Batch of 2 targets.
Target 1
Amino acid sequence: MVRITEDLVRRRAEHNDCEIFSLEEISLHQQEIEKLEYLDKWCRDLKILYLQNNLIPKIENVGKLKKLEYLNVALNNIERIENLEGCEELQKLDLTANFIGELSSIETLKYNIHLKELFLVGNPCTEFEGYRQFVVATLHQLKCLDSKEIERSERIQALQNYPEVKQKIREQEQAYLLKRAREKEEAQRRMQERHDKKQKQMESKLGFDSPDSLQNKENDGDRRQETVEDNEEDRRFWEEPTPYTPETRLETHRYIEEKRRAKENRRESKKGEKPLRTLVTAEGKVLNVNVPKLHFSLKDDEENNQIILDLAVYRHLDTSLLDVDVQPMYIRVLVKGKPFQLVLPEEVKPDSSSAKRSQTTGHLVVTMPKAKEIILAKQKVSASIKDSDCNTLQKNTRRSVQVEKLEVDPSKYSFPDVTKIVQEKERVGQGPIRLQPKITEATKSHVDFENNEDVPPLI
């Protein structure tokens, strides 16, 4: 039986940050709820409550919701209106498509003085003669019944005929209650018969099946037979005429739920019985398998005489979910239980192999040294190149050994004095510069020379 739980209420209260104590509106429709409970303790501030299309048989545990204004319990198994006197602010009540046959139970709604709208469409009581007149005359505060506004004249006429209408309603109620009693007995008998039939089927399977047949019960032929039987049972169940009652509605729901669970169990069993993938044939041949469908690369490192496998596992995959098994001729890696197997081109050393995860890509890198040791010949260098390299090396060695130090001898390396390049001439007189007669070399050389002003110059 599905009940209202705190987890369910919090999940349906996402619009209120999953807080249920201050919740004012909640929708719990189509949750297969079979009992109405706990809401009056967890959600005292509720104003709007949607509970349509469930399996609720009785209105209960809502009397403490003093602020409740709208209650929708359509498409349930309710047979009587009750326990709503405490909902002081109730303005709208939707009871569409229920099983209300006790129409006189609406008298309990007299205490809900703010009730304006009432919906009873689809209930057995709506087929009673004088149904609308009785409701209009009983609930004076009502403004709308079954989406139809109540006129003042209609209410006056209903009040005038109220005693007669009430008597007719009582008689029809008694007839309906007798009918319901017979329907309950019939439903109880039918459920008992179905239970006994199912018990006999289980006993027959356990009594007549040998252990060998029980072990072989899961073959394809038996499964097909079970499928045919299930289909036949479904056909009989859905084609059997049954009255529309709360019991048949609940029985239908439980039958559907039972079939759904059986289907899930078969699906789970099929998953568990899935045959393991062949990794090694009966002849001993190792197969290449890539169940996890991962990209990989296999590199033959001849320089280091090893084989490197780079398996592109998921970057954020936990290393504990990887299982590496290196064999001389193949490698097997289990990624979350899914096998990856690859045949190697050469024999390797399993004991000397190593596996590690790349810190950048998260790939699994497996290094496998080869079993056969290979000696690689050194490359020959030509004589000319070798001689030139030797000469160069010797020169560099000499340069590094003989360190020359430069010393400057002032006597050997003297620099001219720039300030004495031009000799300073002495001035003849003080004051402004005056033009002096040029003394030629002749006058200097000949001391006895006399200058005669009367003789003109030679040039």
Target 2
Amino acid sequence: MAPSHVLRCCQRGLAWIPVIFIALVVCWSYYAYVVELCISTIQRTGEKVIYLVVFHLSFIMFVWSYWKTIFTRPASPSKEFCLPKAEKEQYEKEERPETQQEILKKVASSLPLYTRTGAGAIRYCDRCQVIKPDRCHHCSACDMCVLKMDHHCPWVNNCVGFSNYKFFILFLAYSLIYCLFIAATVLQYFIKFWTSDLPESQAKFHVLFLFFVAAMFCISILSLFTYHLWLVGKNRSTIEAFRAPVFRNGPDKNGFSLGFTKNIAQVFGDQKKYWLLPVFTSQGDGLTFPTRLVAVDPEQPTVVLHPDTVNRSAEDESLQQSSPLSESQNRLLSNNVHANDDQGYTLKTEDSETITISMESES
């Protein structure tokens, strides 16, 4: 039986077959469009120049975003999510799951974690030996934990996650534009060759086949691109769309949604001039994510305010301490806080949801 590392190398080599197939199709499409269509078939110079300029612009952006999606290494959890040496040895020696969870809870108490397993336990990867940050999952194909993992894509031979999700969206967008442009400009010559209005030549096969391939890829890419645009607007990953993340208060499919505008900014960044370029501009570090105010976290300390004995500034300070959100989360959410006359506070989110926090007083 071959050693495991030899099998692993063979598996990694075979994983490049889909990428090589796409590369060959793209190279052939370039030859068919530039040489067989524009140079050999199209006679009008103005039309030929316009087609070549637009084609090369879409081709460059498509190849650039595809390259970045393939060769951007997935981000993994930092060292702070690894168990300290003493706790790690204690965890490995312990056989009871309950005691192991107590060890994990002790370490996780100092980490910015809001999600749990379906059973309410700390999310720990035994393979990578790290506590999983929010939205992080283990990829068996890459054999590593990937921050904000969306899915493993065989067509790019890489995990799509926090570090390259923007590149993947742009890859879908520019590949769709590339195929649409080819199909739209080839259509008239496809009809002319099909009806024999143009003389038989070597270009006929390339033009006919080019239209069919472009149309086929258009249909498949359009559905995938539309689905991922919907995910971006909802601030969900593919994994979270099928299985809602579990917070301390229970599962919530909209737990990470901050409103459409801020959801878009989390993936594409604050500067719109870079949105269409395959350069990394996503917000955050992939380890922590702001969550919307759904309910007060039961594991966070609560503060009871006494409006009869504490002035307004002290109440504001206490309310801020009782919030389960971190400073970075509060800054990204940018909620408006308003005091009302019923000894409480009303918070308004960007989605126009109104959340009232009442204050208890002792009589």
